[in-house]
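Quick one before lunch.
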Amino acid sequence: MFFQQTETNNYEIDMERVPQHIAIIMDGNGRWAKKRFLPRKAGHKAGAEALERIIEDCRDLGVKHLTVYAFSTENWKRSQEEVDAIMDLLRQYLKNYFKKFLKDDIRLNVIGDIHRLDQDIQDSILEIEDLSKDKTGLFVHIALNYGGRDELRRAITKIAAEVEQGNLKAEDITEEMISDHLDTANVPDPELVIRTSGEERISNFLLWQIAYSEFFFTDTLWPDFNRASLEEAIYYYQNRERRFGGR
Ligand code: FPP
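Model of the farnesyl diphosphate complex:
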């Protein structure tokens, strides 16, 4: 076993048992900004910077898939100013950061229904998904206009169409088939889900995929989440037993 004693904290990570897939609900940008008497969009900017660092950290630690909840189907209800600020950050992200990430062997995938996003954003997403498709270091899945129920609804619609066309019998629908019709088809389920900022809810994130995941909740606000926080979460995960319902 190869253990890594980190410089940043005392959490000893077993590098051979790092989760393959980590999913993160990045929460607390607004509170981070409020504490500093800054506008909410400054919190999202700091959150985007934290994400950039965590992507590199996940790759360095050997994580294979990272899924982050960047914009939910509910987030459209926020003020137009805040939605615009997040979309502008996303534009910058796609333009600058992923050009950089491509060099770092990082692949991009977006989950969620991207059709509601502005056309230029949709175009950049498709371009970067294509440009990065052969990268193998880390696969980053960004959830945009994503809701777990909406994802299931879209999957069921596709399966129902196959039944309607006579290509599939309703009684032959398997769990595997459902997984294969989700936005995360071919992605292993996350072993570890992290939520920052002290909230302990799932908020419609990856509802199907988290059936056997471990959860790590931390009071740290997302912009403050760093390598040490990530290692703490992985340490916590490694010290839990996963039984998948068996004994
Ligand atoms: C939750 O904090 C955060 C969001 C809804 C947006 C997440 C966005 C980012 C991390 C940055 C943008 C990243 C990309 C890729 C565009 P909150 O606003 O709910 O915080 P609060 O609960 O403290 O108000």
